[in-house]
Amino acid sequence: MSEWTGDWSRREVLAGLGVVGASAVAGCADSPGGRGSSEAGSSPSAVAVTPTAAPTDRDTEGADTATSTDREEERTANDGYKRLTVVAADANGAELATVEARVADTGDRRYTGLSDTDALAPDEGMWFVHPQEGQQSYVMRGMSFPLDIVFVGANGTVTRVVHADVQGTNAPYSARAKYVLEVNRGWANRTGLEAGDRVLPA
Question: Which of 37, 193, 171 is nearest to 125 (CA)?
Answer without folding.
Answer: 193
